[in-house]
Design brief:
Elements lengths: L6 E4 L5 E2 L3 E4 L4 E4 L3 H4 L5 H8 L5 E6 L4 E12 L9 E6 L2 E7 L4 E7 L4 E5 L4 E5 L7 E6 L5 E9 L3 E3 L6 E7 L1 H4 L10 H9 L1 E7 L8 H9 L4 E5 L2 H6 L4 H18 L5 E4 L14 E6 L2 E6 L13 H16 L5 E4 L7 H6 L10 H16 L11
Parallel strand pairs: 6-9, 15-16, 15-17, 17-18, 18-21
Antiparallel strand pairs: 1-13, 2-5, 3-4, 5-12, 5-14, 6-11, 6-13, 7-8, 7-12, 9-10, 19-20
Helix pairs in contact: 4-10, 5-7, 7-8
Length: 391
């Protein structure tokens, strides 16, 4: 920090938004997107790593500072045999507008040696600093969105003017659960994931429980959602269940009912939107499991199941869409605040033709924008289940 008398502010939970829990570490604070109780029940490294990646988590404060530094220890994930991903991006917003970006090099590195089991080896590294300079003068609201692709241990905040806790926004809280697409896979920076973009359009506070590879109707996730304060709730269900091939139709139907029942224990009348998968041609009518392959250095996925086995209960996206629509229609008779949205209305055939899925599963940045635009229109817009009440 170039100023002579910097203000050093420990990062505490009071400065954070979009998190579910925090863990005190030897060096600072680690945000989590599942409760401690839920984390104790996580069965694999995939979800353990995904929930600790702070998609949608941001620092929020007021200050006159024109220079801000945030010390962190990032934990990055690389896949053996594939090029390492770029460093995660920190987005700094001033009064709601993206104003500056930074990265933090170094840190810890998990090298995944087996993509199927997510077996990984950890190499520890030093902390680093995200630095934002030449910010606008005067009192302003600051948000620093943490990288959605890296676990981020927060150490300290340094500024050239005092920091005050941000006032409550008065916005409604939107709690969303989904897969890696909701987590933000292929989005280039954290405030550009489709849930972040849709939240900005809908003028709501986002709590994003999008977990890469792990939207599997886990009961502990439902219990965590049950206990999180929220004004609006959405569930995006389908793609991970198909591509991991973890259940058949006989198990899927009661699992959906159980997930919804658990959420309704804590949110009996909250608007609850069930969203099926966006268009994914490789999985529309072909069961999983999905397997990765390198195509000229580019990661692509392909489904390996037999479409003929749908009659025996094997799941595809179309099978799941039909069943979700049936379940929601059945339950909505007694639950008028429960709604269904076909994911192909967010990203369908026309969108795929315009913005193809680079790896056959995840949208590119333009695809994230398209999904966000459609979600904002269909969910937050006039007549939508999340439309703001007037009068």
């Amino acid at each position: 920090m170039s100023t002579e008398h910097p203000w050093v502010t420990p990062v505490t939970a009071d400065l954070l938004r979009g998190f579910v829990d925090v863990e005190a570490t030897a060096r600072g604070l680690l945000p989590h997107r599942l409760t401690a109780q839920a984390r104790r029940q996580i069965p694999d490294n995939q979800l353990a790593m995904a929930e600790a990646q702070p998609s949608g988590v941001r620092l929020a404060f007021r200050t006159r500072a024109t220079m801000i530094e945030l010390d962190t220890v990032p934990t990055k994930r690389v896949y053996q045999g594939f090029p390492p991903p770029p460093d995660g991006v920190y987005d700094l917003l001033v009064d709601g507008r993206l104003t500056a970006q930074a990265t933090v090099g170094g840190g810890n590195v998990w090298t995944v040696t087996d993509m199927f089991t997510q077996t990984a080896v950890l190499a520890e590294g030093p902390p680093g600093t995200a630095r934002f300079a030449d910010l606008p003068a005067g009192e302003k609201d600051i948000e620093i969105w943490l990288p959605h692709t890296e676990i981020t241990e927060l150490i300290a905040l340094r500024t050239d003017a005092p920091v005050e806790q941000a006032l409550g926004s008065g916005r409604r809280t939107w709690l969303h659960h989904g897969s890696s697409i909701s987590h933000g896979s292929n989005a280039t920076h954290p405030s550009a994931t489709w849930p972040a973009l849709a939240a900005a359009e809908g003028d709501v506070e986002l709590v994003n429980l999008g977990f890469g590879g792990s939207a599997l109707l886990d009961p502990f996730t439902a219990r965590a959602m049950r206990d999180i304060t929220a004004d609006l709730i959405s569930l995006k269900i389908g793609i991970n269940i198909v591509n991991s091939d973890v259940m058949r139709l006989r198990a899927f139907t009661p699992a959906v009912h159980g997930f919804l029942d658990t959420i309704r224990e804590g949110h009996p009348t909250t608007p609850l939107l069930v969203v099926s998968a966006i268009l994914c041609p490789v999985q529309e009518d072909t069961p999983g499991p999905l397997v990765p392959a390198s195509d000229g250095g580019t990661l692509r996925f392909t489904a390996t199941g037999d479409p003929a086995e749908r009659t025996a209960g094997r799941l595809t996206l179309n099978v799941i869409r039909d069943e979700l629509a049936r379940i929601v229609h059945q339950r909505a008779t007694d639950d008028p605040n429960l709604h269904y949205l076909d994911g192909r209305d967010l990203y369908g055939e026309a969108d795929y033709a315009e913005f193809p899925l680079p790896d056959e599963v995840h949208p590119d940045p333009a695809g994230h924008r398209r999904i966000a635009e459609n979600f904002a229109r269909l969910a937050f817009g006039d007549g939508g289940p999340f439309a703001a009440k007037t009068g």
